[in-house]
Automatic annotation (TrEMBL):
Pfam families: ARM_FBXO47, F-box. InterPro entries: ARM_FBXO47, F-box-like_dom_sf, F-box_dom, FBXO47. It comes from the Eukaryota. Residues 221-439 form the FBXO47 ARM repeats region domain. This is F-box only protein 47. Residues 33-43 have a biased composition (Low complexity). The gene is FBXO47. Residues 1-51 are annotated as: Disordered.
Length: 479
């Protein structure tokens, strides 16, 4: 999160406009927001000495120059003509024009509130199923430019007043409200809100962004809604879960360019809650969901092995929290989150737990397994290692990784007896799950995809490749 100096609130007049304009331009240079077109210029009064080269002109400024109208040539136009001219300018050009003077800025703000300005600045074609990708990108770009316009129009206002003004404009758009849209799964409204917010707050310091989050919580009752979810059984309030997921992803999390910004907003969502609720929220926001109705699939990790793409967003988010330099997320906190996730809403299928740890990477996988070793959970660890070999075989990861991880975990045990129990349990687990899979095949309980037979095939190959890597390591043989 980039930092900027806090602005003092000063009376809005033309006396301090030059300084405000300079401050605004510096703020925008720190953002990735679109810049205004170089073809747009503001008409100026012609300098009275532009065709004379007397010494007086070089040393003094005629007194009446300071009293020229701040509207320049636009002072000759009625308000209606001025608004017609605005209709021919792009949103980016209007946002640049709003920084010329207080009077022009006020006229632009008034124009935004008119019916014609409202139609111009707030298109609401959010549910067009036949909309092309280019048209969708165009409307997102429009709301990004609109964020820049509001950023400049409210430049001298306190953060709270800026947000109140924006909320007054947005409160009339139903798809921007928490419960306003009838079909949030297929709506572009919250995406537009998100890109608007990203442009508006880019370059603001964390204190100001925290005020933005608090304001959004106030107008949406987000904490109270989250409290209702985390205190109920998963899946009981499916519609509310979908609304929270959509709002957090589309408005607060999905549009940031820098990872530090994503971590900041995610921290705002998670940190007010205990760790068990943080894990619940992580799964709610980033866990697998139905492609048909968007509802969170709470039982996906429990009923049987799941695909990699159902775990990717969860694993990427956990890695992001671990890699951040923020004090709020220590390594032990992230490992604790992983531990809570693996039993949500009940204990995950071991293959899913193994796949999730592998996708989280060494920095998270080893501390997680080491904590189990310290607690004396040798048998549980042995089963996890066996399923890690199965995942490496199925998903084509390097089997040598599992062997090295087993070595590191083995060294955590403090006694030889614990190490022996751990190693023996690995072999016993291999034998047990292979026999269980063989029994399913022999019993004739086949499905259309021959899942039981394929699982047995992968298990036998996993065991063989695992022991092969151990032999290579024992003989100091480099493949």
């Amino acid at each position: 999160m980039k930092h900027s100096k806090k602005r003092k609130n000063k009376p809005i007049d033309d006396t301090n406009l030059e300084m405000a304009t300079s401050t605004g331009m510096k703020e925008e240079k720190r953002t990735a927001s679109p810049t205004s077109s170089s073809n747009t210029s503001v008409p100026n009064e012609e300098h009275p000495c532009s065709y004379q080269h007397s010494s007086k002109c070089s040393n003094t400024m005629p007194a009446y120059i300071s009293f020229l109208p701040t509207l320049g040539d636009f002072n000759k136009f009625p308000l209606e003509i001025f608004e017609i001219i605005l209709e021919y300018l792009s949103v980016k050009d209007i946002s640049m024009m709003s920084m010329v003077s207080k009077i022009i800025r006020d006229r632009i703000v008034n124009y935004i509130s008119t019916p014609s300005g409202n139609r111009r600045f707030f298109p609401q074609d959010f549910h067009n199923e036949n909309q092309s990708d280019s048209a969708e990108s165009s409307i997102l770009e429009h709301y990004s430019s609109l964020g820049l316009l509001f950023k400049r129009c409210t430049l001298l206002l306190p953060t709270k007043e800026r947000l109140k003004y924006i909320n007054r404009m947005f409160s009339e758009i139903s798809c921007f409200q928490f419960y306003g849209c009838f079909d949030p799964l297929h709506c572009l409204g919250l995406h537009c809100y998100g890109v608007f917010l990203q442009t508006l707050t880019a370059g603001w310091d964390e204190d100001e962004c925290q005020r933005v989050y608090n304001f959004l919580c106030d107008v949406t009752n987000l904490p109270r809604r989250i409290q209702r979810i985390v205190s109920s059984k998963p899946g009981r309030f499916r519609k509310l879960e979908l609304r929270i997921r959509s709002f957090c992803r589309d408005v607060l999390l999905n549009h940031w360019i820098h990872q530090s910004d994503s971590v900041f907003w995610l921290t705002c969502i998670l940190k007010p809650w205990p760790m068990v609720n943080q894990a619940r929220l992580l799964y709610l926001i980033f866990g697998p969901a139905s492609v048909h109705d968007g509802n969170v699939n709470w039982w996906n990790m429990i009923q049987g092995p799941t695909e990699e793409n159902n775990l990717k967003e969860l694993a990427d988010t956990v890695k992001l929290l671990y890699e951040t330099e923020k004090d709020e997320w220590m390594a032990i906190d992230v490992v604790g989150l992983v531990d809570e996730l693996a039993v949500l809403p009940e204990e995950w299928h071991l293959e899913n737990s193994a796949r999730f740890l592998i996708m989280c990477g060494n920095n998270i996988c080893f501390p997680f397994m080491a904590s189990k070793a310290v607690d004396g959970q040798a048998i549980e660890l042995a089963r996890l290692v066996v399923f890690q070999t199965l995942v490496c075989e199925k998903d084509l990861y390097c089997m040598g990784w599992t062997v090295k991880m087993m070595q590191k975990v083995c060294n955590v045990f403090t006694t030889e007896n614990e190490k022996n129990i751990f190693l023996q349990s690995i072999e016993n687990t291999f034998a047990q799950i292979i026999m269980d899979s063989l029994q399913l095949v022999i019993s004739g309980e086949h499905d259309e995809e021959e899942t039981s037979f394929l699982n047995l095939f992968h298990l036998v190959n996993a065991q063989a490749n695992f022991h092969k890597e151990i032999l290579y390591l024992t003989m100091n043989y480099n493949v």
